[in-house]
Amino acid sequence: MSAVEYTWRDAELRSRPLLALNRVGAGLARVGLDVPALTPSSILRSAVKMAGSDDFGSDSYREPLEVYVRACRAEAELSTFGRLLISRMLAGALANRIALRGWSVDHPDVRNERIESPWIIVGLPRTGTSLLSLLLGLDPVARPLLQWEAAHPVPPVTQQDAAEDPRIARSAKELDGLMKLNPALKAMHPFGATLAEECVALFMYDVRSLALETQAHVPTYGRWLEQADMAPAYAQHRLALQILQSRQPTERWILKTPFHLWHLEAMLRAYRDARVIWTHRDPGPVVTSLASLANAGQRILTSRTDPRPTAEEWRRKCAFALRSAMAFDEKSGDGWCQHLHYDALLADPLETVRALYRNFGEEVGTLHARRMQAFVADRPQDVFGRHRYDPADFGWTYPDLAAEFKEYTERYNVQAADHP
Fold first, then answer.
1. Is 3.40.50.300 the CATH classification of the domain at 5-411?
2. Tens digit of pLDDT for each residue in 198-211?
3. In angstroms, rounded to a whole number, what is the distance separating the alpha carbons of residues 160 and 150?
């Protein structure tokens, strides 16, 4: 039986109570009342209430919070439900920041935890980064960040409770609710409480995160973020890993998010001995798939129906990221990263991982190899449906995209994909 196909159009709010909420909110907005409020002060009050403390450690979050909220109000065309969800998301992230701060004050030794030689995957979205992180995560001496840990990092789980911590079920319930609201997302991106999470979630604690742009159309915030000082965000990133590692030791973390590609200098200042892997794929399907995913994520939160503004913003963002990364690569020379092509990864996942290890002077262990073999043999395909995307939905063609990204594809010998 063929898999169900999903496009960004299938991400449509169908909940009658939430549709009614949006109608009421729209009526109030017409008389000048925005309910619920989406302001920095209301978000901070909620975060403090959640955390039971007002010790944020510093105010580095304040400027990005103000920029993001202002962009949401001016550009995102959020529905009432959208304002509610964005407010809760920001408050939850800042409550986690307070919790990290409190734990580090009460347990100062966590700051002595060493994050050594982490694998950091930095390719654009849809370039095989999820598959690669899953394969690397099968190494018995390494581990990824899990989705439930990023959502509820404090207190860090102990070895004894790692499989039964009640936050796992809590996160699973939260994700199940999201999937019921927007089932198309499940076909577009892997979700699951115990699955590997992009470490972009850790940057949320400083409100400097690419993840915030997947939730709302906020180009003003996006341009601010591209030029922002990322040192405070990487400090939160490191602290979260230190705290998690203090109760569940690991020799090496597997970290991945395209967001690193926007800020490679800051990343390597934070993790000087990182094992960086830059994944490459034809930007045509990458950008088109990402435009579809971003529209699907935002669709249930906004009154906007035209997908083109969000698509154009992500096309611009991808071009900016690649230009920035190529400039960094040119001035840094060989050795700062390993380049990996998407086609090679799909053709022979095990040999691809073995080659990565050899490039860092190591060999894949016997148990790691057996685990990868079992994973590849049993990995389901399209179990939650198939993500279908078409550049025509956004006024593009694949030849247009090929021309725009020609410098990148020629420099890294990226082969053109077969397009329908």
1. yes
2. 888 999 999 999 99
3. 19
